Amino acid sequence: xxxxxxxxxxxxxxxxxxxxxxxxxxxxxxxxxxxxxxxxxxxxxxxxxxxxxxxxxxxxxxxxxxxxxxxxxxxxxxxxxxxxxxxxxxxxxxxxxxxxxxxxxxxxxxxxxxxxxxxxxxxxxxxxxxxxxxxxxxxxxxxxxxxxxxxxxxxxxxxxxxxxxxxxxxxxxxxxxxxxxxxxxxxxxxxxxxxxxxxxxxxxxxxxxxxxxxxxxxxxxxxxxxxxxxxxxxxxxxxxxxxxxxxxxxxxxxxxxxxxxxxxxxxxxxxxxxxxxxxxxxxxxxxxxxxxxxxxxxxxxxxxxxxxxxxxxxxxxxxxxxxxxxxxxxxxxxxxxxxxxxxxxxxxxxxxxxxxxxxxxxxxxxxxxxxxxxxxxxxxxxxxxxxxxxxxxxxxxxxxxxxxxxxxxxxxxxxxxxxxxxxxxxxxxxxxxxxxxxxxxxxxxxxxxxxxxxxxxxxxxxxxxxxxxxxxxxxxxxxxxxxxxxxxxxxxxxxxxxxxxxxxxxxxxxxxxxxxxxxxxxxxxxxxxxxxxxxxxxxxxxxxxxxxxxxxxxxxxxxxxxxxxxxxxxxxxxxxxxxxxxxxxxxxxxxxxxxxxxxxxxxxxxxxxxxxxxxxxxxxxxxxxxxxxxxxxxxxxxxxxxxxxxxxxxxxxxxxxxxxxxxxxxxxxxxxxxxxxxxxxxxxxxxxxxxxxxxxxxxxxxxxxxxxxxxxxxxxxxxxxxxxxxxxxxxxxxxxxxxxxxxxxxxxxxxxxxxxxxxxxxxxxxxxxxxxxxxxxxxxxxxxxxxxx
Amino acid sequence: xxxxxxxxxxxxxxxxxxxxxxxxxxxxxxxxxxxxxxxxxxxxxxxxxxxxxxxxxxxxxxxxxxxxxxxxxxxxxxxxxxxxxxxxxxxxxxxxxxxxxxxxxxxxxxxxxxxxxxxxxxxxxxxxxxxxxxxxxxxxxxxxxxxxxxxxxxxxxxxxxxxxxxxxxxxxxxxxxxxxxxxxxxxxxxxxxxxxxxxxxxxxxxxxxxxxxxxxxxxxxxxxxxxxxxxxxxxxxxxxxxxxxxxxxxxxxxxxxxxxxxxxxxxxxxxxxxxxxxxxxxxxxxxxxxxxxxxxxxxxxxxxxxxxxxxxxxxxxxxxxxxxxxxxxxxxxxxxxxxxxxxxxxxxxxx
Lengths: 789, 351
Known about the structure:
heterodimer, A: alpha+beta, Phenylalanyl-tRNA Synthetase, Chain B, domain 1, Phenylalanyl-tRNA Synthetase, Chain B, domain 3, 7-stranded mixed β-sheet, 21 helices, B: alpha+beta, 12 helices, rod-shaped
C-alpha cells in the first residue's frame, strides 16, 4: 500500500516538521511495517527554464540552446525533438541528481552544456504514468509557468510516499482514511470528515433498474445511477494523488472510482449504464463460462467464481475486475455505480486463480459495510462536482449483513496481566480514545465501542493489543517467568548417534525430504505405499522419501562432480510411507562411504569392513553388544552388490541393511548402510554395570582352520564357542589367508582363543583338553582341517 | 708406606689400561686381570695368610680399599661405554618429525544440528522439554487449531505442500507452531506446558533466502500468569545467548492469527552492531522471531480454559540463526551438502 503524504493530509493535519522517515518509523512501531519511504520524485536541483535560443548543431540531432533559468542564462545541449525557442522546460542544473546519474558541466561536439533539459521519465516517473507527448520528448510547461520556479511543485509531484507492507488483519489500512485514523492515534489528531454531499434529481433509480442477488457470497450490494456525466481529464489533485498512490489516471470518471477506493478502501465499479441494460444479477459463474475483463483478456470461469451479469451475459468478475463490454468509455453518458461486499474467501480463491487486483486485495481482507455506503455517496459527490453528473434519487440495495459497532467489555486488570506492565487507567482510556473508540469507564472494567471499520477487533485481547501497540510494545521491560522448577528433557540417543558418527570421522548431511517418485523405491525391498504431493514444485521433488540412501547417493554424485571423491557421510532423518490409510514416518540413519577413510601414509580406503566396523562400533556404543548380527540375505535390494551386502539383525529382527553399491548403479566403490532408528531404539540398550575384574590369569591358544571359501568366519566361531563352552572368554580373528599354499577354493582363518576361569587358575592341561576337543569337533562339523598341523 | 705405594702402583696401572679400552669386552678382560682367579688383587689377598695376626686387620682394610677402588673404576668406565653405545644406537633411531601425524579422522556436525543443539541446550536448562512432532500434519493442527480457518488470508503467506488427494486435509507442516496444537491436545491434565519444538518445515518457495525445506523452532509456555514481559525476558536471554551478550531485543507489534497480542522481534544487527549496514538495510535491526500471547481461541481449541491460563509462544527460522552465526550468505548452501562446506564445521563451537 502506497500512502501519499498529500493524500492523507487531506484528512489529518500532520506537522510540517514531521519527516516522512519519522512517520514511517512511527507507523512501524505501532505494527505497520514499511518497505520504503521518501520523495515521490527523487530528482534534485531542478528549475523551470525558458529556451531563449535554439540552434541546430550541424550533422546531429542535437540543439545548442540558451536557457533562461531566472538568475542566469545557461548553455545547454539538448537532443529532444520538441525543443524550441520560447518553450518552458524542466532544467536539471549542474549537480542535479537524477535517477540516471548526476548532471555535470560538459562539452558536446564542441558546444558547452551546463545542465540538461528533462523529460518526465528522466525525473524517475514510471513509464505507465507518462502521457503520449511526454514519451516523445522533454516536458513542455504551459507558457504561464514562472521561470525559476520548482518544476516538481508546478507538476504537483512534490509529494512524499511510504510503501507499507501491512499485516493481513488490517484491511482497514488499505485506505487513506484508515491510515489517517492510525496516524491520528499516534499523533493525537482528529480525522476530518469526508464530503459526501450531493443533490439528487427526481428520477428514481428503482424505477429504472432491477437487482437480483442469486448467491450467498454477496452480503451487501448497492447501486446508484448518475446521468449525463462529461468525460474529461481529472482535476490535478485527483491525478496527483492517483500517481502518488501508483495508479494511472485515465479520465475523470474512471479516476473517481479509483480515488474513492483509495480514500475509503471500498472497491468501486462503474458501468456504462446504457451498455449494461436495466438489470444486474449477482450469481455464481457456470463452469467454463467466459468473460473478457477490462484488460481485454478472456477469462474462463468456474462455479466457484462470483460474477455480475446483466440479462444475458456476465459483465464483471465480482471483487476482481470489471468486464470489457460495459466499460466506461469516452462516449459514456450514464453511469451505474456498484459498491458491494463479497465473501472474502471466495474472492481470495478466484483472485488466486485468475488475477490479483487492487480490488481483490481489499475484498480478501474484509470490508466495513459503513464504508460501502460512504463510498457510493462519495462517488456521487465527486461525479457531480468533477464530471457534471446528475445523481438519480434512491438507491438499489441488497443487504444481508449486520452493520453495527462492536461492544467489548475489557476487564481493566487483564490488560496489565497480559502485557506484564503497569499502565494507569487514564493512559489506557486515552489510547483507546485516540483510536476513536468510545470508552465507558465502569470501574473494574471498560466498555469499549469499536467502530465497524476495525474488523480485526472482536475480543478483549484484541483491545489489549491496541493498548500495547499504541503505548509501545517495546516499552515492556523483559522479566523471567516465575515457574515451577521442572526437568527439561530431550532425545539424548539421537544426539549420541550423531556425535558418535561424527567422532568416527563422518560428515553429517541434511538433505531434502522431497525426491523424485522414480527414486522412492530404490535401495529397499520393503513393500510400502509412497506419498506424493498434491502440487509439487517439480517432478524432481514430488514424493516424500522413504529411504535416505537415494539422497546420500545424490550427495556423493554432487561432490564427485566437484572433484571430491573421498566421501564419508551420514544423515539422520525421516522416511515416510502410507500404511492402511495412515501416514507414517520412521527416523532413519543413512551412511555412505567411498574413497579414502583414513588420511594415513599410505591412505586407507573404505571397504565393506570399514562400514561394518563403524556400524558395530555405533551399536556397541549404544549398548547392543552381542545382540546383533550381520546376515547374508538373498533378497537384498537390486541396488546392492548381491555378494557384498548384509541385513543387520538385532534381537532376531531386521533393523537395517548394508553393503556395496551394485556396479550397475555406480562403478565407484560406494558402501551404503541404512538403519531404521525407530526399530533400533525400541530395544533398550544393555545396562552399564560393573563386572568382576578377573583375579586369575587367562591362557591364549591360537588355531587356524583351512575351510571351503563359502564357509563364513561366523560359522566357525559359532562351532568353536559351542565346543569350548564357558571357559572360552574371548575369540579373535588374527589372520586370513587365501593363496598359493592352499587350494583355490579354500581359505585359512586363524583365531586366538582366550580361556579364563573366574574361580581359579587354569592349568595348561585343562585348556589343552578343551582345545584339542574343539579342533576335533570343528574339523568334523565343518569338514575342515587345521593348518600347519 | 710400602702398602700405599703398592696400592698407588696398582691403581695407576689400572688407570693406564682403562684409558685404552673401547668395548665392554676390553673392560671385561681388565676386570679379569685384576679381580679374576689369578688377578692382581686376588693374588694380593692371598697374601693374607702370610700376614702376622696383629697386622691382619689392617691388611684386610687395605685389601678392601684397593678392591673397592678397582671395582669402582671399572664400573665407571663400563657405564661410560654403555652410555656411549646407547647414544650411538639412538642416533640411528632418528625420525623425520616433520612428517604429518597419523590422522584420526575428524567428522563434522551439520550447522543446523549445531544450532538445534544450542537452542535445545539453552531451553532444556530452563526446564523446557524438547517436543518432536511429525512432519506430516493435518490441516487441523497446522492451521485450524491455530485460529487459521480455511480461506483465511494468513494461509497465503505459507504456500503449503498438501499431500496428493489430501488438499486442505494433510500436508507437510509449514510451521513448527503445529506443536502448540499437538502439545495441548496431548496434555490430558490441561496443566502447565513448557516446550520447544525444533524441526523441518516445508513451503513452496525458493530463492537465496528461502528454501522449500528449512528448519524452525517453536516455543510454548502455558501457565497461569504468563505475560508479554515474560516473553520479552525469555527472548532477550535467548538472543543474547545465541547471538552474543551485546545483542538488544526490540518488540514490534505485528499480526499472527494464533497470538494476540502479536509481536515481531528484532535484534541489533550482528554485522554492524546496530550502526546500520547493508545487511540490516541501514536500520540497525534485524527481524528474527515472531511471537506473542497465545490467542484465547487457540487455548480453548486445545482444551485449555483461557480465563485461567495465559501462554506465550514464539517461533523462528533456525536457518536464519545458522546463517547469522556462521555468516552463510545463501540458504541453499546449507542444503547443498558440498563436503567442502560441511568440513568447515569440524570443530567445537567457540564459547
